[in-house]
Amino acid sequence: DTAASTIVLATPLSRWLNRWQVVRPFYALGMSITAMIGLQSGIEMIRYGPAVRGSALASALALVLTMVKAFATVFAFVGVVQLGIELAFLRRLFRGGYGVADLQLALTRQRAERRSIVPPKPSLLGRVVNDLAWLGGATYVTLVAVLLRELRFLITDGWTMVAVQQFFFDVARWAYILFWTGLGLNFLVPAFHFRPEGVFNRLVDRFWRSRIASGLLQLASFGLGKQSGAEQTLHRPTELVLDLAIEDLWSALPATIREGLTDVPRVARDLRCRVGELRTLLDQVNAPDVRQSAEARALRERLEERQTAGIVALERLRLRLGQLSGEAHPAGAFTEQLTGAASLEAELLEELGAHASLRKRLARRGSPAGLTPTPTPA
Questions:
Q1: What is the chain's Cα-based Rg?
Q2: Which of 265, 277, 274, 358 is nearest to 318 (CA)?
Q3: Cα dihedral value 114, 2, 348, 101, nearest 10
């Protein structure tokens, strides 16, 4: 019962989750272009820049700043390429009937699946390339900022000075190229993998839950008209399907009825989010690395009960909304039901807040200790 299971996602969403395979060659190419463009400025820094005056620390900082400028210049263009690729993927998803909620769900399920499996180890080639890259960068900064500026005090013979300087110039050039090329190869042969619950993935999740993500989808869908329903919905949980159905039914109502039910989409969306958070917490409680105790079983039963209550409330809203197809059907009973759904959403939000510390512990996956859940509100 604790074996990890593969989470099935619709094919368009699976392609969207793996879009990095399309993007990363452009970053690898960008690193190589950075090496070519920045090499000349690096040589000028060696001959005429702060490397021949001031402290070694100031020289090193100036060199690092020059390298960062070269990196930022090239990657500004690579970022535009990635934005274009992102918009192309989002446009295909919108055309297929998928929205921001589907993207958020796909990310959540991908994280859950990765938490249940042993993370892959970086390849030996990736680690070697990464180490050589940083060795090249350290060699370049050390040669230019420290060693070359001191040669004039160590070597007095003119011909010897020229020969030694030329040798170190050549070494610095190749070290500079090795640094940027090695970092570029890291995009193709990564030296590390981000943890599912790490800072980077948390920032990615926060981004796709922000208004910026909704704005990107709107930009990508420009000129496509109204979104149609997705053909493949195997990945969608019940609460999301019900929320989308409620929104479609509400949009189809006459304007005179919609004016008195303006809170329907918001209440349904909020209730769907609370049920989804309960589902996530329930998946974390049922994870293989969490020791099941009497407290865990009691919490699981409580969460399942509250999750069912939220889904039933959404289903009742959908059924009642389907009856409001004309002026002859009064909205009084529906308004009362809508108020009850909003009250349930507030209760679920309060309950999730009571489990905030537990959710953080489960997200960290620090140890398979037994659960001691916070008492839920009555």
A1: 29
A2: 265
A3: 30
